[in-house]
Amino acid sequence: MAEVRLVDVSKRFGGLAAVDRVSLHVPEGSFYTLLGPSGCGKTTTLRIVAGFYPPDRGDVFIGTTRVNDLPPYLRQTAMVFQEYALFPHMTVFENVAYGLRMRHVGSPDLARRVAAALSLVGLIGVERTFPSRLSGGQQQRVALARALVVEPEVLLLDEPLSNLDAKLRVRVRTEIRQLQRQLGKTVLYVTHDQEEALAISDRIAVMDRGRVQQIGTPVEIYHHPANRFVADFVGLANFVEAEVAGPDTLRVGKVILRAPLDGTRQHAAQGGVAGGRVTLVLRPEAIRLHRLAPQADNVLPGQIRTASFLGTLARYWVEAAGLTWIVDVPSPGETVYGGEVFLEIPRDRMHILRES
Amino acid sequence: MAEGSWEVTQSRGQAVALRVGDPGLLAAFVAVGALLLGFVLYPTLRVISYPALVDYLAVPHNARWIAAMRNSLMMMLLSTGSATVVGFLYAYATTREDLPGRRVFQTLSLLPLFSPAFMVAFAYILMFGRQGLITKTLLGLDVNIFGWHGLWLVQTVAFFPYAALIIGQVLEAINPTLEHAARGLGADEWTLFRTVTVPLARPGLAAAMLLVAISVLADFGNAVVIAGNLPLLATEAWYRIEGLADLTGAAVVVSLLLLPTAGLFILERVWVSRRLYTAITGRGSRLVRPATPWYFRWPLVAFCTVVAVLILLVYAAVLAGAFARTWGYNWTLTLDHWRLALVQAGGQLVNSVKVGVASALLTSIVALVAAFLTSRRRYRVERALDVLAVLPAAMPGVFIGIGFLLAFNQPPLVLGGTAWILILALTFWHIPFGYQAATAGLKQIDRSIEEAAADLGASGLRVLTDVYLPLLRGAFAASFVTAFIRAVTNLSIVVFLVTPRNLVATYSILSMISGGFWGAAAALTTALLGVTFLAVASARLAISRGLRGLPVG
């Protein structure tokens, strides 16, 4: 097992900065996810680690070795491709055995290791089958087995679940996570699916336009986004432009809200300066919906414009203080509201971003 | 747009890491580059630079050459026009699912593609000439088929299949929903044809026209058999050498011929083929085309029948000629022609097959390796290799023939008099076909498969042998058979490079025709046809066997 470190890595394609001064530290044995929209540089970063592109600038370390100039197969990494990239003219066995053959592993050992890798991913009895006869989920497992069989220090996964249907995606991602824990492998995982990233990662690096926007645990990323991009990309959020009206006080239009301005560590110094502009980030489930006005701070009277029943929650679009607020009510049962309501915004669920 | 350019730049970056510094690939690159420089560029330059400047300057004063140029261009316009129109109508008819007999019509139009170049001309002399079975024996007419009108008819029949094939692919790709939509909006069949079918087929028409024009200009086989006294550039070069041993004159003539063919070829490459590509991709709709109304269907069937009869007459004439005692006079059956043909030229037929196999094998291998090496287009040298690999398609066979004659009868490499000069000339003339087939095949294989192999430890050449070679078996077999058939049926290159020790069948057939031994010529042609059809049949078998169990795509 080994850690992976990227130090100030940059890569340009023509005039486009695909990866721009990216530094990452993937601890040994951790499940680390690169998350971002398409074109954000996450796949390029992964490919730089795999050795398909040399970085223009910066260094890549696997363990203590600087690998910038090593070809892919000498890096102790193995990659699982988005399209699986199984060799269509080889059977499942031959596919999985390919990496071992390239390493001149003798045949008794080879057969044993291929069988072990296949049973690890739960595939038995398909050794002599061609990949095209397998389902998408099975192909995915073959790709995983082919990568695992060479016993890489680091496993690289490039959107491995994007070709599976929704239910299978959830099942396979859980299996991948269990397998990673069981083997203790370092995993670098690329996805554009924020839910997937939150569900399986130890740490997430959110990327946009070639740059790392934030690195943190799933909880940090979701509840304390570093900027508007992260807040918008991960989960759903209400963004409310506000003006600082006084100590721990914000003005939204004509409404005054109590907010933990001094509580935000990095902005403590400016926290109470009147006239400053901030953005309030509110997750839909952080806002409470009441039929009758509650005795609490930060209560806004409003009107439900649209309601949408989603099973585990009910989602409302509520007009209040001249804005539309998205509010989620968990486990709504059979109740869907309409008409006049009151919104309560608890102070401890507010996340505040400075205007940059 | 942004997505697309992103893909391109991504694959470029990748080439650097995967390809640079792989010694096996570097060696392959140098080898293929040297072969293409030595056997494509060097003979070309040798032909162009062989005559002195004064020889070129004297061209306007040479009345015969001016006439040859004029006639060649005239034949190009006439035959291209007629072959394209016939090809378009034929393709339009045979792409309608409800046309009676469309499969038969389609198969028949492919036959000329597997046949020797001069065969149509020879057959039509047998049918419509002064001793013609139809003109003299059945109709009692005295017809002289030699000259431009005979050549026009022959070239139309010989080259319309190319047009039909290309246009057919384009028409086939037109989504039937468009036709249903037009019908739904109130268009009748004629309006549909005029406003939907023809505009959508236009890039195909243009590509077909240019390809046929190049073939007509370069057509040596039919011209030498049926053009009579009509001077043409393609045949003039041979007359210069055969009659007058005038190498300089021959080099000037073929250089003059190269100008229009190369021009048309460049036009095709930069202007048409790109549009064609977008037009023929993206099939997938299973919808049936709307029914063809009777007033369209029956005229189309009648038209296809006439064309099909014209094709069938070619084979009927040659087959009959091989067994009739004295064509035009004595119609009793005999096997004498076969005896003469096989005694005199049996060894040459075997020689043809040997040369064909050797050159087809070389063509397919060099083309596949070249396609693999240039598939990334990262560096200038790769693009240069790409240009070299398609360049021979711009050259008429007679140009290549004279090129090899001039280039390899002197040091540094003397091949004259050996079978190798013939094999190599045919090999490198056919490289573009194999190269384009391999390039198209490579494009269909996802790039990540190569990356996966490299990730697991395969070197550059291992990727070729482990991944691409098995996946391109079909393309390889197709390119081998195409190259083989073109090699054994070739006349335009062969006439310049055979020596008495290395004769091949097509050359002997030409000698027999011009010597008046029509029966033997017909017998030998039939035998040659047997070889090519056998090759096609075994290739189909091999492909269907070899690809069993292998996924498509």
Q: Explain this structure to me?
A:
The complex is a heterodimer of chains A (356) and B (553). With 356 residues, chain A is of the alpha+beta class. Chain A has two domains: 4-233, 3-Layer(aba) Sandwich (Rossmann fold); 238-354, Nucleic acid-binding proteins (OB fold (Dihydrolipoamide Acetyltransferase, E2P)), CATH 2.40.50.140. Helices cover 24% and strands 35% of the residues of chain A. Chain A contains eight helices and 20 strands. Chain A has helices at residues 42-50, 92-102, 107-120, 136-148, 166-183, 194-200, 218-223, 228-233; strands spanning 4-13, 16-26, 31-35, 57-62, 65-66, 77-80, 154-158, 186-191, 203-208, 211-216, 238-246, 249-252, 255-258, 277-282, 288-290, 299-309, 313-320, 323-330, 339-344, 351-354. In chain A, strands 6-7-8-3-9-10 form a six-stranded mixed sheet, with helices on both faces. A five-stranded antiparallel sheet of chain A has the order 13-12-11-14-20, with no helix packed on it. In chain A, strands 15-19-16-17-18 form a five-stranded antiparallel sheet, with no helix packed on it. In chain A, strand 7, helix 5 and strand 8 form a beta-alpha-beta unit. In chain A, helix 2 (92-102) packs across helix 3 and helix 3 (107-120) crosses helix 4. Mean pLDDT of chain A is 90; it is low at 264-271. By secondary structure, chain B is mostly helical. Chain B has a domain at 56-321: MetI-like (MetI-like fold). Chain B has a two-stranded antiparallel ribbon. In chain B, helix 4 runs parallel beside helix 8. Chain B is globular, with a radius of gyration of 25 Å. Mean pLDDT of chain B is 86; it is low at 1-20, 277-284 and 547-553. Chain B: It is a multi-pass membrane protein. Chain B: Belongs to the binding-protein-dependent transport system permease family. Chain B: This is Iron ABC transporter permease. Chain B: One of its GO terms (biological process) is transmembrane transport. Chain B: One of its GO terms (cellular component) is plasma membrane.
